[in-house]
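## retry 2 of 3
previous attempt timed out at serialization; input unchanged, resubmitting
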Amino acid sequence: MSEGSTAQELFDELAAEQLIRPEVTKGLMLQAESLRFDGKSFAFVSKERLFLKVPAVRVDEMVGTGEGLHCEIGGRRMREWVVVLATGAPEDRTRWRALLAESAAFVATLP
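## retry succeeded, writing output
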């Protein structure tokens, strides 16, 4: 993330890269603009945090290493969603790009 940019601005920039693919579209999830793969949401930003749909095992791994946090919505832990905080560091762009690709690939495997 460049100095002064927000998580939403970074997400918008990286979303544009994903939206080149015909199966990726924009939608809404929890009142936030989300990325969808064949109609299934896989990523969105809210309050300077990136939310990603990944396998439950990957959620546990990311939480265990401190790379992510459990996603809780309405007091309920979402098993296949992880939260990644924006650090404001330039590395966010590379890290978020890889995480978006990982999330899209996971959602592509779902029925």
